[in-house]
Design a protein that fits this description.
There is one protein chain. By secondary structure, the protein is of the alpha/beta class. The protein contains eleven helices and eight strands. Strand 2, helix 2 and strand 3 form a beta-alpha-beta unit. Helix 1 runs parallel beside helix 2 and helix 1 (16-32) packs parallel to helix 11 (237-252). It is globular, with a radius of gyration of 17 Å. 43% of the residues are buried.
Length: 254
């Protein structure tokens, strides 16, 4: 049985005091919800203070990115050595990193390998653009991104993959539960072909893209969807708690 996972990606939002206040506003309720792994991914500058706030709770932390070298002359980058003891997860290959910072499948693959080397749980993001979606190239794009992202990676259940259709991120649009489940089922079959069926069954696959408390139930009810990577809704305490709570209730009843 795969444990459901809800991760909140705060992106480039919240100052230190705002991050602290947001966590304080939802920490007690999040901690009380069983049966779901809960992860908050704030900006790098807030990881240390949020680690102190969450260290005695069931709430985990994740980084939003990570470089593939241990150290060196890479101005502005964050290495895995800097993240040790601060977080358990790291988001890699998000569409915004691919689009705005020209991250290639090869770069993302290096990051996945480095994250696993240091014991982090990578959340590998994949997803097609609106143009590719409308041209019926979903399978082609997703297959390429998953295979390239996992090239040379040994089978591991520590990997998490988030399907985030680019056209649904921050737009208020979302795939239907059925659409998302179909693509996520495809991802699981790709992982099974790359590795093996048992590992593929253990890997958690998430949906992301304008997920809210109003839409989460539709996705979580689908059999292949193990959770969500939540964007804007994770910046609202009540919204994020509701997403986690609904996930726990729906998955526990199945």
């Amino acid at each position: 049985m795969r444990r459901p996972l809800i991760a909140g990606n705060w992106k480039m939002n919240t100052k230190l005091d705002e991050a602290r206040n947001l966590v304080r506003a939802m920490l007690a309720e999040l901690d009380s919800i069983d049966g779901v792994e809960k992860v908050l991914c704030p900006p790098f500058i807030s990881l240390a203070i949020l680690k102190e706030l969450t260290k005695t709770t069931s709430v985990k932390l994740g980084a939003q990115n990570m470089y593939f070298e241990d150290k060196g002359a890479y101005t502005g980058e964050i290495s895995p050595l800097m993240l040790i003891n601060l977080c358990d997860f790291v988001i890699l290959g998000h569409s915004e990193r691919r689009q705005y910072f020209a991250e290639t499948d090869e770069i993302i693959n290096k990051k996945v390998k480095k994250a696993l080397e240091f014991g982090f749980k990578p959340i590998l993001c994949v997803g097609e653009s609106l143009e590719d979606n409308e041209a019926d190239r979903i399978e082609q794009i997703i297959t390429r991104q998953v295979k390239a992202g996992l090239a040379g990676v040994s089978p591991t259940s520590q990997l998490v993959i988030a399907y985030e259709p680019v056209w649904a991120i921050g737009t208020g649009k979302a795939a239907t539960g059925k659409q998302a489940n179909t693509t996520i089922s495809l991802i699981r079959s790709i992982v099974a072909n790359l590795w093996d069926s048992e590992t593929a069954k253990a890997v958690r696959l998430l949906y992301g893209g304008s997920v809210t408390s109003s839409s989460i139930a539709e996705f979580i009810a689908e059999p292949e969807i193990d959770g969500a990577l939540v964007g804007g809704a994770s910046l609202k305490a009540n919204e994020f708690v509701s997403v986690v709570s609904q996930t726990a209730n729906i998955k526990s009843s199945r």
